[in-house]
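pasting for ref
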Amino acid sequence: MRRFSSVLVGIFAASCTIRAAAAAPMTFDVVEPSYCMGCTLVFARGDIDSDTAEILSAEAARRGLGRGTVLVLDSPGGRLLGGLKLGRAIRRLGFDTRIGRLDEAGRQSDGICASACALAFIGGRRRDVSPGSRFGVHRFFFPGGTRTYDEDELGLLQELTGQLVNYASSMGVDARLVSLATSKADLAVLNPDELRRLRVVWNPNTFSPWEVRTFMGGLAAVSRSADGSADLSLLCDETGTRRAVLVHRFDAPLTGREVELYRRWFASRRSVELFGREIQLASADFSAEPGELYLALRLPRDFQPRPGASTKLVDASSAGRIDYATGGDNLLPAAHAAFRNCVVR
């Protein structure tokens, strides 16, 4: 048992970094940029250690940071277990993740997120890598360098690989990312196609192609978000009125503060933008509860969506920006069918 325990300690002390020399421990700088009202960016720079997740969680609690905060990472890596813990903390807090750093002028510039940082990065609810930034992976290694492992040790290494696969899958990332990482002794920087294909870059509110579904004796055009948490429907009710209905369900319930901010948002807004057209909120139905946001819009009689045009719905930045990236695939025929086949009560 003693030898097994020592191997486990070695595994979880494993380094996952792109350079041997230790960098400074990760620090966090909170910025509220003037170009984005209500947005909060947290710039994280340095090596990830075993207590980095606790430091971030304490800072978030002290400043009241939560859903919609963007964590901007610039790190060569660090402790493997620390990267896993940080990724789970990021997901629990509801943060989005990007790669970058603050330059000397206080502006965001390109950065790198590699090794253990890559594990932390995929904890983001929404994840983005700018064209000039780098996301890289390679196999983890242990203090003391490369050596030969016996059969028992190899079994434990395989168990750890399985845990990494489960972690990646739980974050919505293709498990092939772990296979890629464990096959590379040197750093492999993913290209934009690989980032999208492995779901490292991810927007949960990107909507699916439109489809027609039966609904209350009529038809509705429906599109669902990539993570399955939100649906946008176009239909006409029993009076012939055209409507758009958004329902967004939350696995992690909204806090009381977030609910209040969304209610204030609705009370203060006169209109929203749907497929490039301004829609008045005076006759809309809206509710914000811990588990769900609901918005039902009354559309003009001649309303026809424009594929590719902007859709800006339910944005209360201080509670966490929610941008609904509705697509245009099959939109026009689905909407035409829905508006010609009204529901029946």
